[in-house]
Design brief:
Elements (H helix, E strand, L loop, with lengths): L9 H7 L11 H13 L11 H4 L2 H11 L2 E2 L4 E2 L3 E5 L6 H15 L6 E6 L2 H16 L2 H6 E4 L4 E4 L5 E6 L2 H4 L4 E7 L1 H4 L5 H9 L9 E6 L8 H14 L8 E5 L4 H5 L22 H11 L4 H12 L15 H4 L9 H7 E10 L6 E9 L5 E10 L1 H5 L1 H13 L2 E4 L4 H15 L3 E6 L5 H8 L10 E3 L7 H13 L2 E3 L3 H9 E5 L4 E5 L8 H13 L17
Parallel strand pairs: 3-9, 3-10, 4-7, 4-8, 8-9, 11-15, 13-14, 13-17, 15-16
Antiparallel strand pairs: 1-2, 5-6, 6-7, 11-12, 12-13, 18-19
Helix pairs in contact: 2-4, 2-5, 5-6, 13-14, 19-20, 21-23
GO molecular function: endonuclease activity
Protein name: Terminase large subunit
Pfam families: TerL_ATPase, TerL_nuclease
Length: about 550
Amino acid sequence: MEFTTACPDWERRIVQGRSLIPFPPLFPDEAAAALDVFKSLRIVDAAGSPTFGGACEQWVLDFVGAIFGAYDPETGKRMIREFFLAISKKNSKSTLAAGIMLTALIRNWRMSAELLILAPTIEVAGNSFKPAADMVRVDGELSDLLHVQDHLRTITHRTTGAQLKVVAADNDTVSGKKAAFVLIDELWVFGSKPKADAMLKEATGGLVSRPEGFVVSITTQSDAPPSGVFKDKLDYARDVRDGKKEDRKFLPVIYEFPKDMIDGEGYLDPANFYITNPNIGRSVSPEWLEDELRKEMGKGPESRNVFFAKHLNVEIGMNLRANRWPGADFWSARGDKGLTYEAVLSRSEIVVIGIDGGGLDDLFGLAVVGREKGSRDWLCWHHAWCHKGVLDRRKSIASKLIDFQRDGDLTIVGDELADISAIVEIIGEVKQRGLLASVSVDPAGLGELIEALAEIDVTQDDGTLIGAPQGYAMMNAIKTAERKLANGTLRHDGSALMSWCVGNIKIEPTATAIRATKANAGDAKIDPAMALFDAVTVMSRNPEAPREPEYQMLIF
């Protein structure tokens, strides 16, 4: 069967209000039979309790038709087994989830089958179970066919014995499940759970022996930069949609603004709200969105960004706060993925290395800042290390740290000296290449590093090791960095690690100075960003580049 789940023209389709599913149902009879059931279900909490068939937009029917129309009744296999829907808040996600899974329960032929709606919290689980239970109770025929148990959040098919369960996810609730049909509600919340990947694998493992099954993930955008399993799935969904990766068993449907609308702030125009709110005028009030946008524009970036993420499906790049470092506003624009470690060294005439690190509960941050030959612009590459114990002590950021490790920007170590050894090796290489001006460090807690640097002749005595001023004394470096970001003469490697750290910086002003500190004590790590400021402290003094060796022409 020839089809593709890629939709490379999605930007044109979404602006025109066309379907984001690039093919009709693979098995039209299966789609039609399932839609007959789905469209007859009643949305009890909507005015007049209309049916899905009478109340929902065509995009809903297209999505449901694609799910059930992927089932081949002759082989008993589903041609597309995983579906992903990302859409703005209040577009009837939980009600849609209930309708899809109730339809699957009714259409299922397997005796004693398990169907599962997996929610991140008890409250979210209730949001999916209640509309499903209401759909049964309002229909006399369904009440005879299905048995609702509110205290167990379970609906049982009286003939097949199949059960639809709505559960708040943890390892205990999903362990041993053999569900043929799984719907994951609000996937973005799972992104902050460090063990979510293993838990979801356990919950969906039953599909191995149930080829008719499916997994559907329905989510809004995250209220923070995407992380963990949510980031992985979102990135993969975009790659499949854009045709970068071929996966005919995975169908992504993402209601988000085209890039030019993000760059040009077209998402702020109420005339474009329909792009990420296909239910606008039904479950989504355009007047409410306009009123709330007007209010949010008068608030700080932190509140505004959450509104954009939830109601306009705009991904948060950095969590920009009202008391943020001003340089954060320019950070994303100065990123260049081509600025690898090797690229910075090969393009620079001189290099300053900044280092900042605390105890075993912090990151050990390193910034390699080079002054480019010719332009004299500053080129920055960053890396960080952390001890594996941080993953247990700081569970709220564990999934982020694992993401950074996967990106290659963070190294998680077990041996408490492994980070120091790696840092000294980098410094030794820069020195060997004749580029090192100095190493600028936060002096606190770096006794072991200072001893290790002495072994490669980087010491305070010869000026190659400098203690960078901290606290309010760092104000000049902070201001210099933000000015050079603003005028484009400081560029960096564009890592997600540094975007997160820069977004975590809080600026505390006094009458005469400022200092950089963490926005949230403990979890909001900023050490790699502070390493950058340490390096800027020295680079702003305009250190001299090594002179080229002089050659004398000999005449014979």
